Structures
1.
Amino acid sequence: MLRSFSSFLLPRSGGRHLPGAALGLALSLIPLVVVMVLSQGMIQGIMDRYLETFTGHFQIQSYSGSPGALEELKSSLVTNPEIRAVYTERQGFGLAYSGSKRLGVQLRAVESGFLKDEGTQKFLKVTQGESLRGDSQEPEVLMGEQAAKRLGVKPGDQIKIMTARSLGGRGFLPRITTFRVRGLVSVGYQDLDRLWVFLDAAQGSSLLPESEYPLFLHVKTHNPYQGILELQKKLQDQIPFRFMVKSWQELARSQFENYQANRVILMVIMALIVLVASVNISSSLVMIVMEKTKDIAILKCLGCPPGAITGMFTSLGFLTGLVGTVLGIALGSLVALNLNGLMEILNRLMDFWAYLTSSGAGGFRLLNPEYYLESIPLSLNPWELGITALGSLIVSTLAAYLPAKKAKGLRPVAILRKY
């Protein structure tokens, strides 16, 4: 019955208003899906780089500050089947200079195994020169691309690094060491690696005193995103009390929470656009009610119950939302999965425009690599897409309630007297 009543109205009215409303909903969903995929890929890519190249999945430090105790603990941890790899590391700060250029750098004294680790090599790429060998007769370093650029050095050049040793209450004793730049590295995220300088663990132990820059264990598991808190508690219970275990969720909490908060804000803004688009569905149905007041009155006189009128307009809102949702999510997913290529095309077009206008501004980047990933890992989350689709359908159906209520309340006798 509902279908027969709907066919009385739709051929003469629905085709004029509802397609535009469905298209508006689809266009509002495209940026929502793109932002959803882009932000998740950005967060995932950045956190993967943090975990594999900087914080590790766990860090274990010794309260006693004994390097020997950490080495013994390392030997016992590598036999744990839940742990993939364990490396020693020492971090500190120094002042690097070459010629008249100066730069404060973060020194990372690592063992050669860390640079060869599969997780490290997945993100830490040697872009120029070679990696550290560990058996070199002269002090060598790997530098982040941006640090080398700011100092104006390249592989084969020499730089000097000044560190300081505390003399208690008597000040500091500076030490200057000359290094040869063996290679340049990048993780594809300049905000993370812009000040990195890697050096051999043996050189680091002499350059960075244990009393001020304690050694720690850089621990990697098979999956840092599953069961990390349970494993942390298990490790803390198993190892001696003089050691402290910190998970990446503690070490990188501020970054992770900041990224997630920004993502939520963006999603809320995009969702508001979808809400505004759903108003088009409501207004389109209101127009149908206004244009077809006489037809609705005739239907009621023919015995169409008020519930059927309500159901008809609610169904129209749902079907319009369904068409817009399917189209919007499909197009949004297509754009999102090809976002890296689309951004590269836009970058090239902007470079070409700069060339045509002779502005001399080349190397345009839509997303500044100093703050964003150079290449974003993009993938669709079926759960998020499903929730988005469900929310869109619910909003579209609710948007049809007002015109459905208006149509239900029409008085057929009073209306037909006017015609």
2.
Amino acid sequence: MNDKAAEAKLSMKYGWATLQSWANGGFAPRLLLEHWQELAGGWKLILMEYLHPDDSWHHVTHAECAEAMWQAVEAHFCSVRERCPALVHEDLRSTSIFVCKMTEAAWEVSTTDFDWALRAGPPIRNAQPTSHQMA
């Protein structure tokens, strides 16, 4: 590990294969461990590069709204689909997408929060009851 800041993620479930594949492709923060570390009680510790605001990284919702930024985000996910077609994020939200303005027209994009990520499979119907009330 180097002297850069690290983000420590604690989770009971984590899509390591998806994170590792996306990180190797440059679509997610660089991993700082070969694999997660097993902790007591079934918890997993995942260490990755911290996308620090001092380095101009921001959630996509907090960045300036520029056409070039949205084009970079779209290109990012097109590249992910092309290079990692069998792995899905499963919980993609604006708070999981980080952007860094490199130049006036160039943005770097990275994705975080792989708790629900997994290998894509056939669609299934969830037979478990949900907590949502139907009107």
3.
Amino acid sequence: MIFISLIFIVITIINKCQAEVYAIPAESQFYFEKFDDAPALFGPSLADGAIRGLLIDADPPSGCNASLRPPPTVYNDIGKWILLVPRHTEKENCSFEQKIRNAQAANYSAVIVYNIRVANTSVIKSTKSHCQIYQKSTR
């Protein structure tokens, strides 16, 4: 499992429909990279305020497996773990809903589903059932 301990994520809320995602290396307060994103059309709104936490790559990488590895038990100053999961992999693919439900079951604070190809900018679609999705998510 790739553990990204040097990257902080800050999701700054613009309104209920948009968010800004910034990745900031832990050793620098001045360098960051901005990523375009769109909120999921299900689950809680991102308008509650900023979410800040440490990023961790999904293991297994697709995020489709119910045996998704939970966040590390090591101390985290920020206290939140944010799962970083690709939209699809060559070996396995599933719905956004399934990825987010698996992350929620594994105790992640938030989920970022990212596109492998930059040209693919479709939004996270609605789910068949909004019931029991408490995870904030963005893509």
